[in-house]
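U., I forgot to send this yesterday:
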Amino acid sequence: MGKLQRKPNRIPEYDYSQVGAYFVTICTSDMSHLFGKIVGAAVPGRPHTVLSNTGKIIENAINYYNENLNGISFDVFVIMPNHIHAIISINHEEAPAGGRGRPPLQRVVGNLKAFVSKQVGFSPWQKGFHDHIIRNDRAYQKIWEYIENNPYTWVEDRYYSKEETP
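Result:
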């Protein structure tokens, strides 16, 4: 029996370096709860993620990107116990090109994953990441709301499990 082939999750003919917005989901390896835990779901108010040390490293890295990287921004993001959702925008043609021929989107996600892995001493990540090209303002708004409301809907989330964060 041959080795399983991973299905490419990028659209081969799409230019990921062009100006645009992308809905990105990055998951932990084995869907482990490494980034924090959701609190406040059973009380009035807004449920939110209490970040673990790994979650705080991720948040700091994303904030650093937003403050220091021209041409690419995390417009909105949420760090959940076992995944991250974000809208990453490539804002202009001067966005830095990806290393080794990789477009900026893949470079940014790869660099984020590598930085966090180095800081925590192991790779918490699932291989690859999921992306969706945001094609219009209506879709952008709908995805933004989904990201902001993700802690509210945690127990219905496809990535949900009752596992507690270490």
